[in-house]
Inverse folding.
């Protein structure tokens, strides 16, 4: 719903407007000083222009836009001599003003949002008829192909390979027609509903795209419009954060609750039924920057939030605690370098797997916390070091951890007996070795989002499998034994579908590209 005219503006908005006013006043003073010093340009005589009859134009459609930052102005046109004190002072003041405007634009906003207030593109959010209320739908060099499937001798494996390789791209739209986010996709997920494929994607600038993949292409009759171009699917884009949405999770306790973690240091809870986004965690100091790289809520506790940061920290936060109190927050420094991702064991959430830029996979036990002050940390069960950095560590319900690292491997570590681990158990180097190592090109470079192996949460046939993007513009699917099941591709994929994710229970796979395009196999 639209904001009322008399709604009091937030503290953040008030300060931002004050900063803009100060900057504008400062620039006006500089211009006056330059004019008084005789440095201003000579005034030009006004030339009369014959008036034209005014033509009434239709009122333009109002578009919600970001506040424009102060622009640089030309000293030469203003008559300010280069290297003069006035020029130097002007340059310094303009630089400070631009820096302040940039900080204001990137600073997180703690206010609660209605979805209708943060829609930046696409279909508006209708509270009375949101996505979940819609009924179910009617229904380039390969490294793995049909020959691999045909040559499979194991009957069960062959049947599974045939089924997974039989997944096809959304038939109504090609990937290059489905721009689910404005910028590069960093996070991807399918809503747990089985009624229809409902895809969510988070991008580099804090946008969250939502696409209902049960919709059909709009039919256009040739006689009505011969030049009509086919339109893509209807997509809603929200902006709950000011920086990258690195990860998100649907609550295991409430399918209408979506938790998003961002580089703006905050976690928001989006209520998909009410259409409201509320901040549930952020550092108490608004100026503190602690970009988040991971987020999870365990199946055992709906009120406890687990998160990791790019500074190597791991946090546990009780969301029932008032924001101004720190009693519900525990922070542990688990690494001197960035934690790229973490997961909790689905059945034993006291066990955490972290992957770090320091090249390690580490397993921690939250049942035992030792040390004092800044040195407090959970018990380290064991660690494994790779040749290069490890991007993500993902537990599955069978006790296996999958990692992808820059040494061009996917490693699967089998801790199937972890349910029997006693408090304080320590694993040796040999016990931490991977049971399977799969060669895989993980050299994403600067412009492609880092590849991560992501397990299907609850496969219906109980065969553990994960998906991961492929630099040859495919998505690869493997079993926990390292057996490749499929290499998903198709026409219209013009970039690497780097961010790939399974539906929790159904064999649907969604993947996103650096251009914000969606690939969906069903």
């Amino acid at each position: 719903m639209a904001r009322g005219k008399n709604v009091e503006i937030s503290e953040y908005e008030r300060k931002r407007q004050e900063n803009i006013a100060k900057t504008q006043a400062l620039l006006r003073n500089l211009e006056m000083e330059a004019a008084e010093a005789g440095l201003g340009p000579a005034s030009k005589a006004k030339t009369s222009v014959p008036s034209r009859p005014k033509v009434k134009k239709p009122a333009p459609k109002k578009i919600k836009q970001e506040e424009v930052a102060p622009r640089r102005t030309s000293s030469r046109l203003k008559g300010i001599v280069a290297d003069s004190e006035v020029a130097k002072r002007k340059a310094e003041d303009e630089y400070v003003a631009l820096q302040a405007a940039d900080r204001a634009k990137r600073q997180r906003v703690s206010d609660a949002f209605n979805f209708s207030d943060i829609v930046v593109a696409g279909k508006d959010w209708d509270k009375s008829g949101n996505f979940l209320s819609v009924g179910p739908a009617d229904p380039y060099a390969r490294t793995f192909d049909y020959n691999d499937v045909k040559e499979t001798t194991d009957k069960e494996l062959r049947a599974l390979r045939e089924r997974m390789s039989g997944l096809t791209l959304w038939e109504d739209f090609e990937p290059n027609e489905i721009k689910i986010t404005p910028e590069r996709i960093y996070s991807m997920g399918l809503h747990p509903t089985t009624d229809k494929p409902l895809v969510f994607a988070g991008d580099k600038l804090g946008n969250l795209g939502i696409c209902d993949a049960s919709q059909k292409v709009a039919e256009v009759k040739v006689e009505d419009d011969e030049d009509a171009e086919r339109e893509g699917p209807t997509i809603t884009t929200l902006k709950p954060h000011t920086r990258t949405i690195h990860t998100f999770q649907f609550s295991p306790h409430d399918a209408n609750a979506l938790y998003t973690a961002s580089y703006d240091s905050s976690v928001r809870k989006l209520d998909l039924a009410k259409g409201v986004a509320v901040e549930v965690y952020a550092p108490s100091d608004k100026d503190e920057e602690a970009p988040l790289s991971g987020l999870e809520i365990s199946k055992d506790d709906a009120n406890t939030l687990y998160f990791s940061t790019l500074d190597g920290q791991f946090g546990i936060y009780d969301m029932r605690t008032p924001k101004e109190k720190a009693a519900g927050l525990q922070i542990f420094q688990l690494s001197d370098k960035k934690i790229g991702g973490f997961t909790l064991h689905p059945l034993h959430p006291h066990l955490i797997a972290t992957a770090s830029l320091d090249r390690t996979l580490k397993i921690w036990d939250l049942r035992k916390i030792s040390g004092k002050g800044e040195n407090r940390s959970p018990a380290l069960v064991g660690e494994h070091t790779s040749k290069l950095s490890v991007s993500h560590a993902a537990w599955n319900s069978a006790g296996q951890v999958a990692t992808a690292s820059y040494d061009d491997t996917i490693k699967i570590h089998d801790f199937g007996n972890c349910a029997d681990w006693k408090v304080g158990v320590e694993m040796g180097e040999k016990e931490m070795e991977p049971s399977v190592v799969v060669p895989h090109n993980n050299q994403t470079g600067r412009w492609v989002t880092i590849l991560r192996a992501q397990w299907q949460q609850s496969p219906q046939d109980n065969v553990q499998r994960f998906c991961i993007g492929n630099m040859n513009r495919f998505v690869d699917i493997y079993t926990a034994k390292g057996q490749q099941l499929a290499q998903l591709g198709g026409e219209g994929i013009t970039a690497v579908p780097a961010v790939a994710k399974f539906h929790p229970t159904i064999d649907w796979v969604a993947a996103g590209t650096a251009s914000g395009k969606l690939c969906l196999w069903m």
